[in-house]
Every structure is written in C-alpha cells, then in structure tokens.
Amino acid sequence: MQCEMVIRADAGEAMGSGHVMRCLALAQAWQETGASACFVSADLPEGLERRLQGAGFLVHRLGCKAGSLDDATATAGIAQSLGADWVVIDGYQFVDAYSLELKRAGLALLAIDDYGHADFGAADVVLNQNLYADRSRYPSVPPDTRILTGPRYVLLRREFLCWRAWNRPVPPHARKLLITLGGGDPANTTLKVVEAIAGAQTFWTQIQVVVGPSYSHEASLANAIGHIRVPVNVLRNTPSMPDIMADADMGIVAGGSTCWETGFMGLPVVVIATAMNQTPIGTAIDNAGLGKYLGWHANVHPRLVTETLDSMARDLGFRECVARRGPGLIDGQGARRVVNALRGELE
C-alpha cells in the first residue's frame, strides 16, 4: 500500500480537536487530487478516529509518548513504509528535535504552526493560517523554506465549501445563539457561559451547544441547561458544523480554528481564550471586526459575557459588516492553495 501524505496530529481534552480537524481539511484537498493520505496519532478520541475513517483515511496509532524521539522514529518508519511524499506535523509537542529526526529519514516536511513554538529549520514548508501571521515570525527558517501565512491558507473542511456563494441573512435582532468552546474544554468554559445566560434576562429563542469528543462535563452542563427558559440543544462531535453556523445569528466560541470557520460563514462571534495560544487569535478577530474578544476564560466575568452578547445582538450594523467581511477575508480555497504549494505550483 502507498500513501503519499502522512499526517501526524493528536487530539484530546487538553489540546482539543482543532489540530486534527484542520488536518482533515488538508487531507481532503490532497485526496481530491487523486492522492492518498493517512493519519498517525498517539492520542485520539474514538469518535474522532471514526470520523477520519468515515472520510476514507486510515489511522495508525502510536504506543509512545507524543512528541518524543520514539514518536518521531515510529512516524518516520510508517511514512517510509508507505512511500510517503510528505509528512505533515501539527501540534505544539513537535519541536525542532522531532522535525530533525524526520528530515534525517529523508522525508519532506510540512509544519503547521500558530505562534512559533519551534524554529522549524528542518521544515520544507511552514504554514500559519492565522490573520496576524507573516514571514517575520520565522527568522530562523532557511530562505529556501516556503512559508505560507495568513487567511489565504485557512484550512476548511469539505463540508464548508458548498457555502461559498451563500449570503447570510441578518435579522434586526439576533435570536439564535451557537455556543462551542473547544473539542475538550477542560476548564468547562461551556458551563460558565451557559450559567451566565441562565442567570440573565434572556431573549434567545434557540441555543445550540456543540461539544467535542473529549468533553467530560455532561452532568453539570445538563443541570445548568435545566435553568434556561428557552430550548437548548446539545450536540457532540457533530459533522454538520456549517449547517449549525448558518442557522445561528451569533456565536460564542473558543479562540481556535473555529474562529476561521465562523469568519468564512459570516457569523459574528464573542471569543474567549481557553488555551494560551488562542490570545492572538481572539485579538485578531476583534481587530478584523469579525467579533469581540473577551480575554482569558478564567478572567471573564459572567456579566461581561451577557452584556457583550446583548450588545452584539442589538447591533445590526456590526453583524451586517461581519456577514460581508468574513467571507471576503476567508474564501474557502486555503486547503487547495496549500496542496498546490506542496506540489510546487505557484499562484
């Protein structure tokens, strides 16, 4: 069996699902060229593994510590045995020693990054899809390394792409709210937000709460939902996020890859950082006029949550601007552009 792309990414309660989900978008775009891809993981919830398999991708599980040299050696061995053209690494556990081990094995390497957690000197291509990213963030990368930065390269999964020509309807007052605060949400910021809404004079007619495969606080969440006077629907590991985003008028989200999905869908959002690397993303969303950033989850007062939601729900002009600006900034072609770059094609 041959597999031209091997993707090394993990997911779990602490790190969430974002690394694997954006790599799924890349794998789908690679697959559409007639090539094959597979995933290698040391940590992966079973629900997410089934989703990858359902999309047509094999999953190889590792029995070693994530990010270790044993991990790098095992991943290199899998890639060599499959005749891979590219290895993709996405995760903060993959530092320079890991990348060097893959390069010693003679493998071409794409490193997906958010905030420069490594030098990436061994990478052939570095990808940072965030709004704030540019080449100046990578001073140690050799000149011949290709660096792809900014929203032109946002990785969106296949299910989003059919919404490219969609124009979001913007009601005078937002009534339908989406809450999704990460695939793991170990601090249970979801509960904090739901309790804030339950204690406020709510005007929502519909609330959708989406939790990931690693979310483990169902009992406390169900108790809080029992105190809300409007219908609340809890969805776990849903494959239909674009449909849910299209049905919502506003969202409250973690500052990860979901922000670029809501931007593409023109959905105004309130952003809360649930991991330290999400701070620049939340700030960028605020600066770009795609939402409002409230800060680090532990420092966000429930009253600030409800006041910000109320203000945005009443601000028709702001929500209309997001509906136009988001799809203009994130056009849904990012995964295709990355695949073209890996194949040596210039735009």
The stretches of 5 or more residues where confidence is low (pLDDT under 50) are none
Domain count: the total is 2
* Assigned CATH superfamily of the largest domain: Glycogen Phosphorylase B
Query: Could you say what the CATH architecture of the largest domain is?
Result: 3-Layer(aba) Sandwich
Beta content comes to: 15-25%
Measured as a percent range, the helix fraction is 25-40%
Q: By helix and strand content, what is the structural category? A: alpha/beta
Q: Kindly identify the CATH topology of the largest domain.
A: Rossmann fold
SSE map:
Layout: E1 5-9, H1 18-31, E2 37-41, H2 46-54, E3 58-61, H3 69-82, E4 86-90, H4 96-104, E5 108-112, E6 125-128, E7 146-149, H5 158-161, E8 176-180, H6 189-198, E9 206-211, H7 218-225, E10 232-236, H8 241-247, E11 250-254, H9 258-264, E12 269-273, H10 279-287, E13 291-296, H11 302-314, H12 316-329, H13 334-342
Parallel strand pairs: 1-2, 1-4, 2-3, 4-5, 5-6, 6-7, 8-9, 8-11, 9-10, 11-12, 12-13
Helix pairs in contact: 1-13, 3-4, 6-7, 6-11, 9-12
Walkthrough of the structure:
Helix 10 (279-287) links the parallel strand 12 and strand 13. The protein has 2 domains: 5-156 and 332-342, 3-Layer(aba) Sandwich (Rossmann fold); 162-329, 3-Layer(aba) Sandwich (Rossmann fold). Helix 6 runs parallel beside helix 7 (218-225). It is of the alpha/beta class. It starts with a strand and ends in a 5-residue tail after the last helix. The strands form 2 sheets. It has a 7-stranded parallel sheet with strand order 3-2-1-4-5-6-7, with helices on both faces. The longest helix is centred in the first third of the chain and has 14 residues, at 18-31. It contains 13 helices and 13 strands. It is 37% helix and 18% strand.
